[in-house]
TonB-dependent receptor domain-containing protein (Halomonas tibetensis), 625 residues
Amino acid sequence: MKTTFAPRGLATFALAALPMAVQAADPHSDSAAEFQSLNPMVVTAALAPRTADQSLASVTVLDEATLRRQDPTSVTDLLRGQPGVDVTTQGSFGKQSSLFLRGTGSNANVLLIDGIRLRSATTGAAAWEFLDPRMFERAEIVRGPRGSLYGADAVGGVIQLLTPEGEEGAPQPRVSVGGGSFNTQRYSASLAGSSGGTRYYVTGSRFETDGTPVRRDGDDKGYDNTNGLVRLSHAFGNDAEVGLLALRARGSTEFDASGAATDDFVQQVAGVYGELAVTDSWRSRLTLSEARDERETLAPTYTSLFETRTRTARWQNTLALGLHELVAGAEYAEDDLGDSQTSGLSFDEERRYNRAVFAQGFLDFHPLTTQLSLRHDDNQAFGEELTGSLAFGYALDNHHMVRASYGTAFRAPTFNELYFPFVGSSNSDLNAETSQTFELGLRGQYGSWFWDLAAYQTKVDDLISLDETFRPVNVDEARIRGAELALGAEVDDWTLAVALTWLDPESRSGDNAGKRLARRATQGVRLDVDRELGDWSLGGSWVAQNHRYNDAANGDRLPGYGTVNLRAGWDFAPMWSLRATLENALDKEVVTAQGADFDPVTFQAMPFDYINAGRAAFVSLHFGG
């Protein structure tokens, strides 16, 4: 089948506009405030604020302005096609999604919400599809191993979603109502402010839709999601601070399981923290948190209930030593399956703890910068793991920095892999998967534009896969090579962002040696173009990827695709605006995963394509700043 890439019009226009942006840029401008969005502060890469060019990592920041302009219906739409990011879905609107970061699996990267990890302990992966992007102010994508900072599963990298905090002044309300194709309705409201050292942000949202078929000639599969978020903090006069965060998403999504089936879900994070300046150079922070992933499935042939909780206590200390910085701390986490059950069977083990200590040194000997980190994990289920990383950055001049790094990480076996309660379907003797990554990068940072180029290689040992009896075992090896190029510019009223990804994810052992890892595209591009025209704004995004294979043997080929999303905004009165989006404007078919029906007569699997929604239009009315 022929690979479909992009319409030429938008691509030609944007690529032509980029050189004009470069020519217009003043390479000697140092206005940090004006171009902060091009060299933003990042907290995820090094556990402390660093500008993107100082972080010694490959990072992408999607700020509040980006989220407001694009106003995506899902977090996966926001992340799709970003440098090193690949997303596969089993349909649109709340359907199961997997996120591959630099070719690593969906359970080999970490999702944080304000520093609190959210995932299912049974599958090891995060339910990206159930998060409403309107709950968040920004997203930080850090690519490359971060096991020495965040522990298990940070093989491909870490994505952190950050929530807003109230700004100084009178309360600021925001209200939005809208809807569109497939009988979709969307509402949100928030209130934020600050007074007397207390900051607050409270918001709620509702999304519901009749949905679209997830397979050809199928029925519409609906989705609804209700979200709530509270964030409070108070700063005392002695330079101490306390705060709390509570986020909850609850709803249901219909899916295809040889008949009508529904998942009822809850995604929740809650945490409290206290921070104290022990001395002028030493800050100490203690965070207590709980994350919950719950899912109850009602299908024609089975029912299941999974409730996993992760409770964490993290103590982190930051010591400033002139231009240098030391971070050290300890962490205790406990996974608990609670009332999880499958077909009336119980897991052999329903709890496990993980104890860790970590340290990081950030040394600035300008023009040379060094980052060294080390972490030791002791897990009740699979034993001890030691991870570390070493990164160097060298400022060639005021605008160019070269960086090199080496890091190790590991993916922890999940409860399903260790203890799934069907005979022969789990293996309690599994070891953790381990990885080693080398990376070389070069960044150019100018007044009104930047570019960042990175090349890397990751080698993964003890990959967990299924043997001939469908029992998980440590047998496979993989080698992932890749390169990424990111460019951004803000010139006059234009905002441009370009992401190019090349990937070579290869299995290196067993019958599939030399084959591409399943469901990974090897080439991708994302282009975002926006223009301010007085009270109006116009923009568009083009996302394209080449073909992928649904299976490890590379027998089931899925075609590439190219989609265009268009958007417009109108600030028609003070505090009031209208926004409209046209997603998949050219009505292209997008297939990134397959399912299979089982024929009870022939005992053979009959594959089918999971299809995403076609052209869809949405309009929303907004009040607030």
